[in-house]
Amino acid sequence: MATPEAISVSYTDGIYRIYGTPGDDPLTGTAGKDDIYGRNGDDTLVGLEGNDSLYGETGNNSLSGGGGNDTLDAAGGGKDTLDGGTGNDSLSGVFGGNSSLAGGDGEDTLQGGGANQTLDGGAGNDSLTSGGANTLEGGAGDDTLNDVYGGNQYRDSVLRGGAGNDRYLIYTERANQLQIQDAGGIDRLDFTDFTGYRITTSPTLSLSLSRGNTGLARQGTSLVIDTNEDGIALATDVEKEVVILDFFGTSPTLAGTGFIETIKNLSGTEILAANLSDASTTPTPTTPTPTAPTPTAPTPTAPTPVAPTAPTPTAPTPVAPTAPTPTAPTPVAPTAPTPTTPTPVAPTAPTPTPIPVAPTAPTPTPIPVAPTPVFTPAPPVTIALPIALTVTNAPAPTGSASGNIGSNSNDAIVAIDANIPVYGNKGNDTLIGNSENNTFFGGKGDDALFGDDGNDLLFGNDGNDTVIGGDGNDIELGGKGEDVLYGGDGNDAISGDLGNNTLAGEAGDDNLYGGKDNDALLGGTGNDFLYGKEGNDILTGVDGVAANPGRGEIDTLIGAEGNDTFLLGDATKFYYNDGVDTATGGGDYALIVGFNPSEDILQLQGAPSTYQLGASPEGLPAGTAIFKKTSGADELIAIVQSVSFLAIDSNSLRFV
C-alpha cells in the first residue's frame, strides 16, 4: 500500500494538526495549540508556544515543547531527545531506549522505560518514573523519583533529587545497585519489596525497607544502596543482617565499625546500637533511652469493583461494527484512612565520652522493640549524628495491595495520591483512578484500568486488558495481548501495540494507533485521527449508533499496511450527512489517506447508483471525492487521496 509522502496540515476547532512523512521531517508548530505527528523517520518536532502534543513515533526523534503545558510522546523505541520547555509538561518515553527526557521549568511528569535513559526534571516539583539502568535528575524543587522496574538485567541506576525536599520510590524485587545523591533538603526514601520486614529511620531521612538483603553505605557524597546480596556493608550472616553505616557522619573510616545500627535477625531477636568515641579516660558510660512508639497501621478495605467483560471484536462482513459503548463501573472508593505516623523522639546525643575496651560491657536500658539489647565492644571511633530506630513486622500480602504496588495475586487498588504511579504487578488486577491525573501500569495478567476524571496515563502491559480513560485527555497504551481501550470524553491518544485490539476514542478529538496486528479503530464523535499501521484493520471515524454518524466531523483515516476496510456507512444510514440538501457538506467528511484499491475496501450504504465520484470541492484537500446523490446538492462523504483510479463499480467499493 502506498504511504503519503507529503507533509499535511489541517485546522479544526482551533488546533493545527501537522503530519509528517515516512522520511526525516522538520515539523514546527504555531503559537497556538498544535498536534504534531512525526510518523516514520528521524524527525524534529517543535511546538513553540501553546499547549501542544508532539508524537515522535518511530525513528530517532527530537521533540521540543517550547512554552505552554505540552505533551511529548516518544513511544517508537528509538534514541529520542525530549525537551518540555517551560510550563507543566508531560514527557513519555515508555518504549524508548537510550533516550533523554528534560522537563525544563514547571511541574513536569517524566515517564521513562528502557535502559540507559536520562530523565531530568529541571526546576519545579517534578515526578520522574523509570526502570532500567537509568539516571534520574530531579533538579530544584520537591521532586518524586521512582525507580520502579526490578530485574537483575538492570544495574547501577543513579537517582539525584537535587535541591528541595525529595522523595525516592524504589521497587527492589530483583534490582542490583542504586546510587542516590542529594544536594540537600529533608528527603524521604520508600524502599519496597512487598513482603518480610520493614525498617524505618528518622529524623532527616525517612527510610522504609522490607525483606531482602539491603545495605546502605556512604561513597563520597553519595548514598549507595545494595539490594541483591553482593554486600556493600553486609556482615557474615547475609541472610539475616543489614548494616547501616554512618553515611552522614564526618569520619566513617572503617566499614562496619562506625555508627549507626546493626540489625540482626529481623524477627526481633537481637538489636545492637552503640554511640562510640575515641578518648583515653575511664568514664561512666551514659546510654540514652529513646522513646520508640510502635504505630498501628490501619488496614483499609479495598473495594472489589466489577471489571467489564472485554468484547471480542468481529470484523464486519458486510455489516459495519457498532462502536461499543462501555459502561465503566463506578466503584465506591472507600475513604482512605489517614494513618497517624508517630514521630519517634530522637535521643539527645550525649557529649562524646571516651569508653575503654572493658572485659564486661555495661547492660543498657532495653529498647522497647528488642527483647534483649546487647552492647558489643568495638574499636574507638567518633560519631556525628545518632538516628532513632523503629523495627516492626510488616504483614505478608494476602491478595490485596499495600501502597501503590500490587502483589503477585489479583489486586484491587484505588489511587489516592495523583503524584505516585500505581503498578498492578502480576495477577488480574483492577486499578481505579480519581479526579486527579493518574498513572497506572497493569503489569502481567488480564487487567482492568479505570482512569476516571483527569488526564491519565494508562498502560495495560501484558495480558488481555480493558482500559477505560474516562473524562480528560488520556494516554492509553495496550501493550501485549488482545486489549479493549476506551478513551471516554476528552482528546485521547490510544495505542493498541501488539495483538488484535479494539480502540474506541468516543467523545473528543482522538488519535488512535492500531499497531502490528488486526485492529478495529472506532473514532466516535469529534475530529479523529485513525492510523491502522500493520495488519488487516477496520477503521471508522464516527459513532455508528448515533442518529447522524459523522455530522459536523472531519476525520482522517490511514490504513497503512495490510488489507484494510474503511466504513463510510452501514445497512441503515450513510455517514457524514449534514442534513442540508442545498450544500455539498464540506464541513463533515472522511479524509482517507494511503488507500490501495487492490487491497483495501470502502464500505458505503445503499446502491451504487446513489453515488458518484468527482473532484474535491474548492478549498478542501485534493483527491477523489465520493458524493451521495440527493434531491438537491450532492452530499460529500469522503475524499480519497493519492488514488490514480477509482470507479463506482470496482471491487474496492462494497455496498450494504
Automatic annotation (TrEMBL):
InterPro entries reported in the protein's UniProt record: Hemolysn_Ca-bd, RTX_toxin/Mannuronan_C5-epim, Serralysin-like_metalloprot_C
Lyase listed as a keyword: no
Biased composition, class Gly residues, residue ranges: 64-87
Principal location: secreted
Positions of region (Disordered): 48-147, 278-364
Domain of life: Bacteria
KW Secreted (keyword) present: yes
Stretches that traverse the bilayer: none
Molecular function GO terms recorded: calcium ion binding
GO cellular component: extracellular region
Pfam families the UniProt entry points to: HemolysinCabind
Keyword terms: Secreted
Subcellular location: Secreted
Ranges of biased composition (kind: Pro residues): 285-364
Name of this protein: Hemolysin-type calcium-binding region
